[in-house]
Amino acid sequence: MQIEFFKHNIDDEAKQAVLKVLETPYIAMGKVVEELEAEFAKYLNTPYALALHTCTDALFLSLKALGIGPGDEVITTPLTFVATANSIVSVGARPVFVDVEADTGLIDIQEIRKHITPKTKAIIPVHLYGQMADVEALAFIAKKNNLFIIEDSAHCIEGNFDGIQPGQSGDTACFSFFATKNITSGEGGMLITKSEAVYEKCRMMRSHGQTRSADQRYKKAGLSWDVEIVGLNHKLTNFQAAMLLPQLRKIETLWKRRQEIYRHYQAALSGAGIQTPKILKNCRSGLHLFTFWVDNKVRNQILMALKEKGVHCTVNYNPLHLLSFYRKNYGYREGDFPHAERIGGSTLSLPFYPDLKQEEIDYVAQTVIETVRG
After folding, report:
1. How many helices (H) and strands (E) does the chain have?
2. Which of 19, 184, 216, 360 is most exposed by smallest CB count within 10 Å?
3. 3-state DSSP call for residue 173?
């Protein structure tokens, strides 16, 4: 049996929606993107949503719109995808890593407090695997120290913390529609915010800083435009938005199926003594990844053994501070963040998507147990 690590949820309805867009004269950013933005904003209970090419773009534009740049520091976690830290570096600021909680992998609130300096301008918490960081505590710290909060919510559309959804307590929240995400358009991202000023800055920077979009100019031939702020091309297309809309409308149904699979995996693995990250009782996880932890001395051997048996897994994530760029340029070294290093060295992510059949779920769980036990 071969179990792929991921299969997307692009069904016939989504395919037909894409074909419908491709039959129109205008396939770039336009009306369908606006429809996606409106429905996404409604789902997240936020006034402003901006569709983008990637979640990395959302992080980058958030930092730019909030005025963060050279000489500034941004606190974040090393246990995340590299885009989180790269976006900080890309605006000229310095990423300041802090350790994570031992049982969840989420950024440690107490460590944040210890690393705030006069240069600190923002915090980027990562809602890891789908579980939100403690946004209430983060909001308190931000208010006390006059800091911005940019939520890296690439893993978490459907989640909440004590009823608080992503973006409701932070200045912005950034989402991913990458190929392996809960809803996908291959590449894609979304930025949400409560601030009209932040939204307007990001909206112009999304399209070269132009005051009017190409879609607006297409609808009204000859409509003039100006550039009031420097920007690049960070746009999503109509056909990507068309692919996403049917998935977004089924997001709760898809989440419930992942919850069923999560509970099955969790019961099987915990019953065999295999450790998994803790999900807090006051949280609803977006359930993006199902990860488990093994002895770091044999993690890579287990990964290869599972692949040989047809169970395709991956690693989320090796800690960023041990990557060559961050060692060389910021002086990080092994031992700086013990919890992140332990989790990064021991974690594996299982196949986890709604299309998994029951016999596949059972096979994955049993194969993991047999392989870990050796």
Report:
1. 14, 11
2. 19
3. strand
